[in-house]
Amino acid sequence: MTNSKKTSGILSNPTVQSILAALLCIVIGLFVGYIALLIINPKGANTAIITILKNYFTYPSKAAALKYLGNTLVKAAPLLMCALSIQFCYQAGLFNIGAAGQYVAGAGACLYCALALHMPWIICILAAILAGGIFGLIVGLLKSYLNVNEVISGIMLNWIGLYCVNMLLNGVKEVASPYTLHLSAENPSAILPSMGLEKFFSNNKYVTIAVPLAIIIAIIIKIVLSMTVFGYEIRATGIAKDAARYSGMKEKRNLVITLFIGGALAGIGAAFLYLTGYEEWSVTQSSVPSMGFNGIAATFLGGLDPIGTIFASYFIQHITSGGSYLDKNVYPSQISDFISAIIIYLCGFVLIFKLYLNGMLRKREEKKSNDGMAHNGKKQEGGIS
Asked: Do residues 269 and 107 touch, judged by C-beta distance below 8 A?
């Protein structure tokens, strides 16, 4: 086999095409972000974009770099869960923009159980799963039986969830602060166990079992979607809902279950962050946490594949954390969010990129085939003469 045939075979692989498309989105997104930095202040643009990419590598000490790598992983775990929530629902043809509200519901449930009821961490996680699942269930029932678009109901529940959680947690906040009580002081039994993981990150106490659990859940989702009957029905419902119904699948039930699972994934994502004690909830916040919306970037950048989403979630969180190291007197830290938004936008053109690449490969194969036929024809003419 020639090198050109090997190259064509590799490029025609859907997984390779998804990786190339993701890399292209990243490169263009970073380039647009760099242009924005140049517009704001051209003198420090080079240093700023490098700082965003380096993140914790900006620290000269290895111990400090490992510690802040741990912080990035702590926030990447809930982001991965939100991305999986959106991705799982997308397989059924649903755009679960309500993952942000389901994340909020999970945060409210786990923190209330931890701070008001003094429950252990396992009960708090189950409460977060149930609360997020219920929010997803509401969207699923409205979609299946009342034909309410999941985007509309999801967005409305985002804000309903936010203000309900603010009111719920108002009773467990600090007296002179809008933030909830410190978990480590109020109920240490609610903090997720670390199982010794903190030792690998310069004794970063916030690195817990949430990090490996998030990766394990992503692998389980991959297996469920690709190797089980339930996963097949979910994907079939997403591809052609009417055809799935006519073939005997219960598409309404599948939609409800899918959104319940999606909500549960977002809810457990909130537990993976707030049960580490890494940060407290502010009962005065008037905007939905961006974690659920950043999950959109991670899931599409990951090629709608659970394994790809693991790496995409880390990358999104990496540049988001990197933005916090910028000189705030010159550049806004939100430049990282701007880059993520550009990447989300570009992910919408992934299909066009794949169609263009496949068309280019098809033309190359046709040209080779025609050249081969012409060469054989000349050989035959030479033999006859």
From this structure: no
